[in-house]
Amino acid sequence: MPISPSLRSVRVVLTAWYTTLLVVAFTLFAISTYFYLQSLLLQTLDDDLTGETEWVLKTLAPRRDTAADSLRRGILPEAIQSLLDDHFIANPRNYIVMIALRNGTILYQSEDWANLGPPPADTLRHRPAFSSRNSPQGGVRTCVNWQDPYIVQIAYPERPVDLALDHLSTIFAILAPLVIVFSASGGWLLAKLALRPIDSITDMANRITAHNLAERIPGRDVPDEIGRLIRTINNMIGRLQQSFTQIRQFSLNIAHELRTPLTILKGESELALQKQESNDETRQLAGIYLEETVRLSRIVDDLLTLAKTEAGQIKIQHEPLEWDKLVHEVFEDAQLLSSWRELSVALNHNDPVILTGDSARLRQLLRNLVINAIQYTPPGGSIGISSVLNGDSVEISVRDTGIGIAPTDLPYIFQPFYRSERAHHHAMGGSGLGLAISQWIAHAHGGTILVASTQPGGSTFTVVLPVRPPHLP
Ligand code: ADP
Question: How far is the CA of 451 from the centre of ligand 1 (A)?
């Protein structure tokens, strides 16, 4: 099953690692504590049992000679027997005791001993020897100790040790889910804290475009990994900014340099056209030169305008203007331009509006849209212009019945130098700069420019402009 991207996030991975490590550490701690406590309790028990066997052997030792006779008969002197009874039967710890001779004769045994059976054979090799054995009452710990001619065996139930270990297991079982919840939420929180700067770096890096390269990610002046990452990205943005500035300057210089020879060429072509002595062929040639020079000059002007907007060298004038009058002028231009292409142009609606803005730039914007509509509409088509006042903004749309724009081209048409494949075939003269400039003009007035298009069917460009740009006081 594919893992969803959200589960692959660094935060989830870090939390999973953190939780796993903590759970593993807790499990190791629980297991080692369990076995350590078990061996500690058994050791204490073994020490107790050793002490008891030593005591019995010590009690028997001084009487070896005097009691030789009784021993030979297989019974302990009464005095010793009652001493042992006092010690073991009165003892609340439930010791199970058996004293025998090396030859197997049992001298003394507490009631439970019969159930326990003989000690394992190898327990007589070293002393004292311990073993855990099963009895009908449960597990017992046995200690076998000897000193000729006596063998003493004492056993004690292991139940107290088992009980302590059971308690410990219960505590660990209760703690385990708490540890998992605690480590998972702790890990989640720690990962969030550690990754918070990354989120803000991502947001900031996403916001940076060619237009705001002067911005930087707010740095934290700490020589840690995040600090280094921020410095590296900021340095990279700095280098990008430098490259962009150089490219803009380069475009500006080229456009400037081209303008003068183009103006001279245009003048010369016009002169050649007007000269009386020029023959038809020369005139025709001069006409072609003039047409191409005008087209080239327009591209160079557009390039210069775009380079200047990107370099922030164009200032928008904010003056009250009669918007409806401007729309009407552009409409008249459109009528003139479309007359030789058999297109009908209509001004469907034109609300009277006084708008604050730059009349030259706004005229340029509208002309770009109208010229595009004329350029990309085949003969016999129609173009409709309408300007409607809508509350605090004016909405002007230029609709055509032209070649339309493919959905795959729509996201790119406002980018400089972008021309669709169909546009190339349909109108050779374009530069792909008109819409980029138009969009900049709309944005500079606090407005937007939208396009809707179908193929076939045509396109509608809509510009929404605030009557008074919001950034003005
Ligand atoms: P151009 O000089 O190529 O017209 P623009 O920036 O004005 O440059 O337009 C960019 C592209 O958008 C055009 O090449 C064309 O593909 C498309 N376009 C713009 N206006 C229209 C329209 N009215 N109808 C169809 N396509 C259009």
Answer: 11
